[in-house]
Design goal:
This protein has 73 residues and is α+β, with helices and mostly antiparallel strands. The chain is built from three helices and three strands; from the N terminus they run E-H-H-E-E-H.
Length: 73
Amino acid sequence: MTTKRTPSIPEQRTTSAFLTIEEAAEFMSMSCITIRRHIGQGSIPAYKCGKRLIRIRREDLEAAMKRIPTTGQ
């Protein structure tokens, strides 16, 4: 019986400007499907490298996060 292990982002990849969908999902604590959904909706820009490779800029992921306003005070 084998267990599926989620690979972590290698140290050298954390400094890269572009991330794979899997790395972006881990960075944002989301599933790959959710990242793909955001790309499809246009809220996260993505870049196609070749026929199938999709890459996402780290800055675009950080910009896609929105602060939730607090109430009161």
